[in-house]
Design goal:
The structure is a homodimer.
Chain A (H helix, E strand, L loop, with lengths): L4 E7 L8 E7 L7 E10 L2 H7 L17 E9 L11 E5 L8 E5 L4 E2 L13 H14 L7 E5 L4 H12 L3 E6 L2 H9 L4 E4 L5 H8 L5 E6 L4 H8 L1 E9 L7 E5 H7 L2 E4 L7 H22 L5 E5 L4 H10 L5 E5 L2
Parallel strand pairs in A: 8-9, 8-11, 9-10, 11-12, 12-14, 15-16
Antiparallel strand pairs in A: 1-2, 3-4, 3-6, 3-16, 4-5, 5-7
Helix pairs in contact in A: 2-3
Pfam families (chains A, B): ADH_N (PF08240), ADH_zinc_N (PF00107)
Keywords (chains A, B): NADP, Oxidoreductase
Organism (chains A, B): Gaopeijia maritima
Chain lengths: 332, 332
């Protein structure tokens, strides 16, 4: 009967971290075009905290009571029509929910091979951060070799991913964090210009560091007044991409500055995208991001892993905002 | 000696419309790569009003005391290396300044042929409005056939140009104006959904008119709080382009809305662009915009023309904001 059930971390009722519990649930079966992945590790994301509190709408078709937006593991069963995967292949990817489980079922074209040289458990918290960073910075902001990029919250999971992708792509990196120790660790990962982001003079420091020209791209994981600051230190034809707004959803912007810089501000979110876009992103990442990671020796920065029974503690650590890099749940 | 001098409208000193006067100035000679155009008409633009008051920086190499950002006329002399133009050709285009004159000299690749079917005098106020509209709506916002576009200040020179380009390109058109008579005239030009823009419920009307989906592109010639409104009625992956900010340079924006819509806000300005970009725009417009205008029977909407001696009156009319379409100075 082990085949028919599996363990998952379930939300007992909406509330604090203590509402998470490990429970036996039915093990999903792949449809004809689907693969099932035996999950080695399930990454944590801020959206999981919102979902636990009942403040995140779960996409149609995803389990409402099992959080988790990403996974990495080994394919253990494939549907009759699947061509690209076989049992034993290492796979990772995004899901709309249900990632905190021993197995996930996904369309075969949504899964991404785990880059060679990256451990399967370490890959568990890789897809959301790296795909978010790569999609925002490369596909949307069109960062080019030789350009410069400013990354806010450079010590976060998305920030450290953006930093490594930018470096591997030949771009100059500037980054902010309110936590000096995170800046030190980002510098060890290759950050070239480290700027404390707590006060309001960081745009002036960015201008200084770029000889008054400003940065070509901003990856903004902070939001609020940071976006107004981005506009003050962006180069002509600069591209600002807003990926998160923990500092606030509202900001004032100077439209004349936007015009004279000929700059753009773009908002983005991965989770709400329709299937065809998620597949397109997975295929493009397989084609370009995975080889880039393999060639550049990318390091998914894992802060700590937890057994499923300690999911509540993992959520508490994420809520504290003290982690540098990602957290994940590991299935033994 | 007529060859050595020409008439121009000159700013005597910074101030009101009365500081404009007609004066004899040296007639420019084309360099080896340049053409000289005997100007039939010189279009008026809002920037001319700012320049007259000393509040618009004149680009390097343009005359400081002769306003005018556009011209149309007939080539009367070409430099020794010019290949694409011959005396007698009808030409139009943008200049950094000095357009209010009987002759302008431009690099041969900056000039654009006047579309067949459009009168040379009517073309005088065409380049700035049509290139601005086309660049913003098509090249930057990437408006596609089958999409919808909202045009603010649809009765202005840029607005009526955007309207006609959008219709000729197979897009659905929505437009706002604070002046009901301008909406009527825009409707006669083909505007499909006319919305009074004075109050604050226009975003709701746009949502109604699009079945709750929102518009794919916004061409915003107004700025200020309109941009926050744009974000309230833009479709998923919608593109907002800010082309002017007469209603104010500051606005608050909802970054979470920007993210969930995956929308972008881009600022643009033509005048400050470097030569290579102006040439690229002129070549692309020659290749695509001119044929589109010829095929679709485009109508440059000219409100009124003035002899150079009445330049002050022309400025007064532009300042009153009552004109539907463009104003220009005609050289007899």
């Amino acid at each position: 009967m082990a085949e028919r059930s599996m363990r998952a971390v379930v939300i007992r009722e909406f509330g604090g971290p203590e509402v998470l519990e490990v429970r036996e649930v039915p093990r999903p079966e792949p449809g004809p075009w689907e693969i099932r992945v035996a999950v080695a590790a399930s990454g944590l994301n801020r959206a999981d905290l919102l979902q636990r509190r009942g403040r995140y709408p779960v996409p149609h078709g995803s389990p409402a009571d099992i959080p988790g937006l990403e996974y990495a593991g080994v394919v253990d069963r494939v549907g009759a029509l699947v061509r690209d995967w076989a049992p034993g292949d290492r796979a990772m990817g995004l899901v709309g929910g249900g990632g905190y489980a021993e197995a996930v079922v996904v369309h075969e074209r949504e899964a991404i091979p785990i880059p060679e040289g990256i451990d399967t458990v370490a890959a568990g918290a890789l897809p959301e951060a790296w795909l978010t960073a790569w999609d925002a910075m490369v596909l949307q902001a069109d960062l080019q070799a030789g350009e410069s990029v400013l990354i806010h919250a450079v010590g976060s999971g998305v920030g450290t991913a953006a930093l490594q992708i930018a470096r591997a792509s030949g771009a100059r990196t500037l980054g902010t964090s309110r936590t000096p120790s995170k800046l030190e660790r980002a510098t060890a990962l290759g950050l070239e210009v480290a700027i404390e982001g707590g006060d309001t003079d960081w745009p002036a420091r960015v201008m200084d560091a770029t000889g008054g020209r400003g940065v070509d791209v901003v990856v903004d994981l902070v939001g609020g007044a940071y976006v107004a600051g981005d506009l003050a230190c962006v180069a002509e034809r600069g591209r600002i991409v807003v990926v998160g707004v923990p500092a606030g959803r509202e900001t004032g912007i100077d439209l004349r500055r936007l015009m004279s810089r000929r700059a753009s501000i773009t908002g983005t979110v991965l989770r709400a995208r329709p299937l065809e876009e998620k597949i397109a992103l997975a295929r493009e990442a397989t084609r370009r991001l995975v080889p880039l990671m393999e060639r550049s020796g990318a390091v998914p920065v894992v802060e700590r892993t937890f057994p499923p029974e300690q999911a509540a503690e993992a959520h508490r650590m994420m809520e504290s905002n003290l982690n540098f890099g990602t957290l994940s749940i590991v299935w033994g």
